User: Fold this.
Amino acid sequence: MALFAERGYAKTTVGDIAARAGLTERTFFNHFSDKREVLFAGSESFVNLVVDAVRAVPKSAAPLDAVIAAYESTSDFFEERRPFARKRSALIAAHPELRERELIKLLSLAAGVTEVLKQRGASASAATLAAETGAAIFRVGFEQWNQDPKDRSLTFHLRAARRQLEGVVRGRVAKRL
Amino acid sequence: MALFAERGYAKTTVGDIAARAGLTERTFFNHFSDKREVLFAGSESFVNLVVDAVRAVPKSAAPLDAVIAAYESTSDFFEERRPFARKRSALIAAHPELRERELIKLLSLAAGVTEVLKQRGASASAATLAAETGAAIFRVGFEQWNQDPKDRSLTFHLRAARRQLEGVVRGRVAKRL
Assistant:
């Protein structure tokens, strides 16, 4: 990540990354399929964290409440990683192929959440709607958290995004918020 | 499409498709980057249709209303294509690499809708929430339309999906609908 910041993402080779980490290129490829994977290595554990958290929410909770509670439970995980998350987001925003990879990872997250909601007894359509609405709230809340000069928690921003979404769905949103 | 149904998607080569269409392989590749593109050739015009429709909705409409109205305006477009849409959906559901391509196309649609909503004066976060909520409603409504034994219109199913989403967001959804 430091290398991407120093040299620019496009100019950093797998050889550079491996050398900085004290690995051969061959060892690097044992761990990552390509240099993009360096940025996404944490994504899978994040997906598992969220899916397990949805599973752990009491069954009495409505689907969207379960999803938001699961995202809120990752607030500490991200708090420890705020400086990393900011650099990573800036890098992803600047490179279309990274944006695409990030979106695919978020989609696999929503698909995983949909499955767990169905296992909890939601219909397929309610599960999809709750998982995708939750993903939209997470995306907006995470973005606001990432840019917040006051460093308020992810939970704070998820709740604000949910309130904003409720306004959007009721159609009572002011055009400029 | 007929060929995919006869021989199976994996077994159909570009040569087969070109021969059936009376084209050389070379001419085929002038039109499509690979055989998957045959299924996605209409996607770009669909994206433009929706984005233009959002732009055409009066500015007084709230963002989500504008998005749903735009999707509803494609109801006739899909009505003419119902048999094609059913075969296409079945094919996509059966092939993970097609599912991924389909999701990427839907993401570019949501991104396009987000941009138009911002041009209409919505904040970045309200635009994202309305575009992604609208995409979730479209996805669920389209799926129900596709499977409806009574062949009711896409507009009918979009409205039903929106009502269901309102229930999900209020947290008043029964766990099994």
Summary: Chain B has a mean pLDDT of 84. Chain B touches chain A at residues 59, 62-65, 100, 103-104, 107, 120-123, 125-126, 128-130, 132-133, 135-137, 139-140, 143-144, 161, 164-173, 175-177 (CB under 8 Å).
